UniProtKB/TrEMBL annotation:
This is Uncharacterized protein. It comes from Niabella drilacis (strain DSM 25811 / CCM 8410 / CCUG 62505 / LMG 26954 / E90).
Length: 279
C-alpha cells in the first residue's frame, strides 16, 4: 500500500503491483517438543543465503528447471532474491509436538522476484521450497504460463468486475492499492484491489479503513471481500526519546525494556518576540 515498502505513492490512473521481499517470517520458533520448548529459539535459526551460486548445484538446477517450465519465454523476468537453509531434523526429535502443528518445514526455502512493468508488475516476490531430496514442497506461482497470461492480459476485465462489485455494495470507489494473490486451489494469480473507505489523520497516527476485494478471472467474479484497518505511526525517529526502565539477562543475552517518550517542539510565535534593535 502507500506504506514504507512502496517506493512512490500509488497512482490509481496507472496502478502498479509492488510486493517486494519484506523479511518473511521463518520457522525458527517451531520447537522440537516439550523438552526443547525452553531452549534458545535462535538455535533453530536457518542459514541465510544471498547468492544463488551458494546453493547446492542440485537445488539450483531443479529451481531453474521449475521456473523455466512455468514461465517459459518469461523466465528471464524472474531474479533470485535470497534463500534459507533449515535443518528439519532438529525440529523433529523425541516427541510428536512439532510434527502435529501443521507446519511443513523445508530444507531449502528460496525467494524470487517476478518483474514485468509492461504488465503492471514492478515487483512480486514469491516462494519456492524444497525438501532435502529436491522435491518441490511449495511453489507460490502459476505452474502453467496459460494461467499467468490469463491474469496479466485481462487486468481491465478484473478492474471492471471490481468496480461493478464496489458500486453494487455501495462502497466508496477510492482506488487505493493493487496487489496479486496466489490461489493454491486454482494455481493462478488473482488481482487484489484495495479501496479506501475512511481515513483519520492525527498529528501522530494515521488510521485507514479499507475494503480488500479479490477477483477471480476464471470464475469471472469477486471471490473475496474483507474490511481491513491500517494504522501507521507518523512520528519521526529523531522525535523519540528512549529510556531503559528494566534490564535482564536471558540465555547469555542482555534484554532491555525501553520507555519511549515523544519530544514535541512547540511552534514559536514570531510576533511575540521583540524586534531586534536597529544598529
Amino acid at each position: 500500500m502507500n506504506g514504507p515498502y512502496r517506493e512512490e505513492p500509488f497512482d490509481p490512473e496507472n496502478p502498479v503491483v509492488y510486493q517486494p521481499y519484506v523479511n518473511y517470517s521463518s520457522f525458527h520458533r517451531i520447537r522440537s517438543g516439550l523438552k526443547d520448548y525452553g531452549k534458545d529459539e535462535w538455535a533453530y535459526q536457518p542459514r541465510e543465503i544471498k547468492r544463488f551460486d551458494r546453493l547446492p548445484e542440485k537445488i539450483r538446477t531443479i529451481a531453474t528447471q521449475v521456473l523455466e517450465d512455468s514461465l517459459q519465454q518469461w523466465a528471464d523476468k524472474v531474479t533470485f532474491h535470497s534463500a534459507r537453509i533449515y535443518q528439519p531434523e532438529r525440529f523433529f526429535k523425541d516427541e510428536v509436538r512439532a510434527q502435529s502443528n501443521y507446519h511443513l518445514v523445508p530444507r531449502y526455502q528460496l525467494w524470487f522476484v517476478f518483474s514485468f512493468p509492461e504488465m503492471r508488475v514492478k515487483e512480486y516476490c514469491f516462494e519456492v521450497s524444497f525438501d532435502k531430496l529436491g522435491q518441490v514442497l511449495k511453489f507460490d506461482f502459476p505452474r502453467y504460463l496459460f494461467h499467468l497470461e490469463q491474469t496479466l492480459y485481462h487486468y481491465d476485465r478484473a478492474q471492471e468486475l471490481a468496480r461493478a462489485y464496489v458500486a453494487a455494495k455501495k462502497y466508496k470507489p477510492v482506488f487505493f492499492n493493487l496487489e496479486l494473490k496466489y490461489a493454491a486451489d486454482s494455481g493462478q494469480l488473482n488481482w487484489k484491489f484495495y479501496y479506501l473507505q475512511k481515513e483519520l489523520d492525527s498529528p501522530g497516527v494515521n488510521q485507514k479503513k479499507i475494503r480488500m476485494i479479490i477477483v477471480d478471472l476464471t470464475a469471472q467474479m469477486v471471490i473475496f471481500d474483507r474490511e481491513l484497518h491500517s494504522t501507521s505511526n507518523k512520528i519521526p525517529a529523531h522525535k523519540e526519546k528512549r529510556t531503559c526502565i528494566s534490564e535482564t539477562i536471558w540465555n547469555g543475552e542482555r534484554i532491555q525494556i525501553m520507555d519511549v517518550a515523544i519530544s514535541v517542539e512547540e511552534p514559536q510565535d514570531q510576533e511575540a518576540w521583540p524586534a531586534p534593535p536597529e544598529p
